[in-house]
């Protein structure tokens, strides 16, 4: 072996041992959860879980990451995971939002997946931190019975673990489950378990080892309209001529218990009481203020029974489909409107432009399985860049319309599992050559 090769091998060995020590250092961060309180809100079909964790570093080295564990089925339905560090008590409490990322580390026992919270101040040996976590699950209530008649109430199953799934030892923990009404058919008991009014309390449980899992099943009434948009395409077309045209194509389904038997409009319209309690007659769309030329149409044509209310802050469009929507029924429709471009288009410091609009679905209390937001830039726009505060898939397309010479760039943003928490501003920046502004009126002149 020549000297050079030997030196290289030595180098490599050193590098590998360094790598191993870094890796073992990362996994040697030892934490325990001193106290965990979990509040599961089942009052809607969108499940919100508020988790308060008091975390302690019981290892020797500083810890900068805290892992949250989720079962494989939870991960599939997770729409949002947010975390903040809190300090102080009651009114003086302060919140510092923390980064949370889906973890690359291999799955744990029973396919457990992780999300990692990055602490802004690493925890030294013996220190504790209080973290507040919010996670949101969609499509996690199973209607049972799966089919109900027009006059029946909707009952659903919720599955979870009485004991928090965690990679850490948990010294003490309690879980509270809130149901929409006092009608609870059954719930699994994991002593101590108590039920009072619309709340079921699991725990306190002491000293649970990592990955302890105690399956529970709660069977309860939930007559919320299970409004799920299987696909929503929102096209936002920017024209420097003063208008922003928005076209939204919805395919909506009532994802609750399937409707059984014949639908009786007479029963639905005349009888009091329980008729069609889980169905929906109206949908509420929250649109920007100053909307104009609002329309709502389905496969048959324009529907004029919608009502629009506007004020300085928002517009509300109450839409009434041609028939009420029962479990399993679908409705496809289009909402269109225009807004003044100056409300949403701004000049950036570098001379370019940017659109600042709301992401998400304008319909209240709705889950979107697949959301496509398409921003159609004016002809001649270049270097588009989207800024969204949560992960989305991005791609570019080209759209040609009647008057276009070179086609228009379309920024396509795709998000799965969108919930109302995603209705927040996003931006699309682009640069623009004003010469193209002349193209449209010239074309107009020649084509008349
Ligand atoms: C997890 O796996 C263990 C054995 O590998 C099993 O005993 C346990 O029941 C599983 N838990 C769940 C919730 O599936
Ligand atoms: C529906 O109304 C919109 C706006 O008022 C209009 O542009 C469109 O042509 C109408 N569509 C039909 C099918 O009547
Ligand atoms: C976008 O609009 C929201 C309000 O609608 C505003 O709070 C935010 O600062 C705007 N963002 C940018 C980058 O202009």
UniProtKB/TrEMBL annotation:
Tell me where in or outside the cell this protein is found.
Endoplasmic reticulum membrane
UniProt xrefs under Pfam families:
Ribophorin_I (PF04597)
Task: Cite the entry's keywords alphabetically.
Answer: Endoplasmic reticulum, Membrane, Signal, Transmembrane, Transmembrane helix
The biological pathway it contributes to is: Protein modification; protein glycosylation
How does the UniProt record describe the way this protein sits in the membrane? Single-pass type I membrane protein
User: Where mainly located?
Assistant: endoplasmic reticulum
Q: Which positions are tagged coiled coil?
A: none
InterPro entries membership:
Ribophorin_I
Q: Which GO terms describe its cellular component?
A: oligosaccharyltransferase complex
GO biological process terms, semicolon-separated: protein N-linked glycosylation via asparagine
Signal peptide residues are 1-28
Q: Report the domain of life of the source organism.
A: Eukaryota
Purpose: Subunit of the oligosaccharyl transferase (OST) complex that catalyzes the initial transfer of a defined glycan (Glc(3)Man(9)GlcNAc(2) in eukaryotes) from the lipid carrier dolichol-pyrophosphate to an asparagine residue within an Asn-X-Ser/Thr consensus motif in nascent polypeptide chains, the first step in protein N-glycosylation. N-glycosylation occurs cotranslationally and the complex associates with the Sec61 complex at the channel-forming translocon complex that mediates protein translocation across the endoplasmic reticulum (ER). All subunits are required for a maximal enzyme activity.
What family is it from?
Answer: Belongs to the OST1 family.
Quaternary form? Answer: Component of the oligosaccharyltransferase (OST) complex.
Which protein is depicted? Dolichyl-diphosphooligosaccharide--protein glycosyltransferase subunit 1
């Amino acid at each position: 072996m020549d000297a050079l090769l030997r030196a290289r091998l030595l180098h490599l060995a050193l590098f590998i041992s360094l790598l191993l020590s870094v890796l073992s250092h990362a996994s040697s961060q030892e934490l325990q959860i001193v106290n965990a309180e979990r509040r599961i809100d089942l009052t809607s079909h969108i499940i919100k879980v508020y988790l308060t964790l008091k975390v302690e570093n019981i290892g020797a080295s500083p810890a900068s990451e805290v892992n949250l564990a989720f079962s494989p089925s939870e991960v599939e339905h997770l729409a949002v995971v947010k975390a903040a560090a809190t300090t102080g008590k009651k009114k003086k409490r302060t919140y510092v939002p923390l980064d949370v990322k889906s973890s690359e580390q291999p799955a744990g026992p029973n396919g457990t997946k992780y999300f990692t919270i990055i602490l802004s101040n690493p925890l030294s040996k013996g220190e504790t931190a209080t973290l507040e976590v919010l996670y949101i699950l969609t499509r996690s209530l199973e209607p049972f019975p799966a089919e109900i008649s027009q006059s029946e109430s909707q009952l659903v199953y919720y599955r979870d673990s009485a004991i928090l799934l965690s990679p850490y030892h948990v010294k003490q923990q309690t879980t509270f489950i809130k149901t929409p009404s006092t009608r609870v058919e059954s719930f699994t008991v994991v002593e101590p378990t108590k039920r009072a009014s619309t709340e079921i309390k699991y725990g306190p449980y002491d000293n649970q080892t990592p990955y302890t899992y105690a399956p529970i099943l709660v069977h309860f009434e939930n007559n919320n309209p299970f409004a799920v948009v299987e696909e929503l395409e929102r096209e936002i077309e920017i024209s420097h001529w003063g208008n922003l045209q928005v076209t939204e194509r919805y395919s909506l389904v009532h994802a609750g218990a399937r409707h059984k038997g014949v639908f009786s409009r007479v029963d639905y319209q005349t009888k009091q009481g329980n008729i069609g309690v889980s169905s929906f007659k109206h949908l509420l769309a929250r649109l920007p203020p100053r909307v104009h030329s609002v329309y709502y149409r389905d496969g048959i044509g324009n529907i004029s029974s919608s009502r629009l209310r506007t004020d300085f802050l928002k517009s509300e469009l109450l839409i009434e489909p041609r028939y009420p929507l029962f479990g399993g029924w679908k409705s496809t429709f289009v909402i269109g409107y225009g807004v003044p471009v100056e409300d949403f288009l701004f000049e950036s410091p570098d001379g370019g432009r940017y659109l600042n609009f709301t992401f998400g679905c304008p319909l209240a209390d709705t889950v979107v399985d697949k959301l496509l937001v398409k921003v159609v830039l004016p002809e001649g726009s270049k270097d588009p860049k989207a800024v969204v505060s949560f992960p989305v898939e991005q791609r570019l397309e080209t759209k040609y319309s009647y008057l276009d010479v070179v086609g228009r760039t379309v920024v396509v943003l795709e998000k799965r599992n969108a919930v109302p928490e995603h209705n927040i501003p996003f931006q699309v920046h682009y640069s623009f050559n004003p010469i193209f502004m002349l193209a449209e009126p010239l074309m107009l002149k020649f084509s008349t």
